[in-house]
Structure formats: structure tokens, C-alpha cells
Amino acid sequence: MGYQGIFRRREIKYMLDSEKYSKLMEVISVHMEPDTYGKSLICSLYFDTPDFRLIRTSMEKPQYKEKLRLRSYGIPTDGSLAFAEIKKKYKGIVYKRRVMLAYSQALSWLLSECEAPDKSQISREIDYFKDYYTPLYDACALFYDRVAYYSDEDEGLRVTFDENIRYRFADTDLRLGDTGELLTGAGQYLMEIKIPAGMPLWLARALSANQIF
After folding, report:
1. What are 101's strand-pairing partners?
2. Residue 184 and residue 163 in contact, taking contact as beta carbons nearer than 8 Å
3. Residue 62 — φ and ψ, nearest 5°?
4. Which one of 54, 77, 87, 201 has the fewest CB atoms closer than 10 angstroms to its CB?
């Protein structure tokens, strides 16, 4: 299909200040390469129940949790491609399954009781999720500027840095732009390390040396 629809990996997040970011980037630049998109705008619309069942469960840090979102790379238009994604986390392992379709079509599907316009195993899982948590609504829009790195040395390793993280609870349609209340200040970076198995030794040493926990 030209895109990856199924992921299984560990995802570990760290909040960095500008000093730790600079020191870590000295190591990252030796072992990894930026992806072809450079800095990109990530737009995500998260769904929940009116009583916030999904986010309340997530905040309790259970062994198993799941969420549904609609993600676009850049501000979408009606016909631009977007990803309807289910993310599940069980005992520290993240399982992500997604399907790609036009933004307006995806939004209409996720906010309705209708089944997926295109049938697949993943779209049926999303339909089951929708039915189980009904009624769902577009609870929160989240935006950030991301730079992603990949490794030719360590297969499957990916490190992302997000800044200017912002959100809004009203007017959540991603077509309305990326304005929102800031969650992070100047010089703050949310780093996420995505690994299929164990962390490479060079990266573990760099985190330890810079007291990044």
C-alpha cells in the first residue's frame, strides 16, 4: 500500500530542556539521519466518550489501554490523506494499527455509527472500537512541530523531537488550522524513542551521561 499500517514497538518519552537537547543531538547526529520530511507539522484529533472514559483510563496507568485518533501530516483539506489509528499499549509494548483515507471521509466515518467505507481487518477493528465506546466525539486537537531521525545501524530505531506542542478542545476540526494553547515553553522538547526491542548501547549511554531519565 505504500505506507506501514501495523507497528509493534516500545515508545519511551522524555522531556528535554535546550541544554540536554543540544548535548544529545551531538550523539544522535553521529548514529542517525533525519528523515526525508525534515521538520513537519503533526496534527492529531483524539476521540473520547462524553465522560472522558478513555483519557481517565489512560491516566490510571493500567497494564492495558487504547485510544483512537485521526492524524494528518500538515493541515488537511477535504481530500488530503489522513490516518485513522488505533493505539494499544500492553505491558509497555505499543501496538499501532492504521488505515489511510481522505480526511473528510475519515472524519465522517469516525464521528458516525456507519461502518468503514473500505473493509479491511484494521478498519473492522476500528469499527469494533467505535461500537464498544459509543458515543464517541472529537474531544481534543493536538499539534506540534516534529523532527524525526532514523538509524541505518539499528533497524527499527526512530527518535523524534516535538516542540511548540499546543492543543484545543473547541473547533477541533483539523482543517481549521493549528492554533491552540501552548503546553510547552521555549526551549522545551518532547523526545520519543521508538524501538522494536532493546535500546542500542550507544543511546543508553548517551541518556545516562546526560542524566536523561
Report:
1. 82
2. yes
3. -75, 170
4. 201
Query: What is the number of residues in the chain?
Result: 213
Q: How far apart are CA 129 and CA 133, in angstroms?
A: 6
- Determine how many CB atoms are found less than 10 A away from the CB of residue 135: 9
Query: What is the grid cell recorded at 66?
Result: 487504547
Q: Where are the beta strands (DSSP E) in 49-136?
A: 64-73, 81-90, 93-102
Question: Distance between CA 111 and CA 138 in Å, rounded?
Answer: 7
User: Considering the entire predicted model, what is its pTM?
Assistant: 0.93
d(Cα 193, Cα 212) in Å, to the nearest integer?
Answer: 12
Start-to-end CA span in the chain (Å): 37
Triad 15, 156, 1: Cα angle to 5°: 115
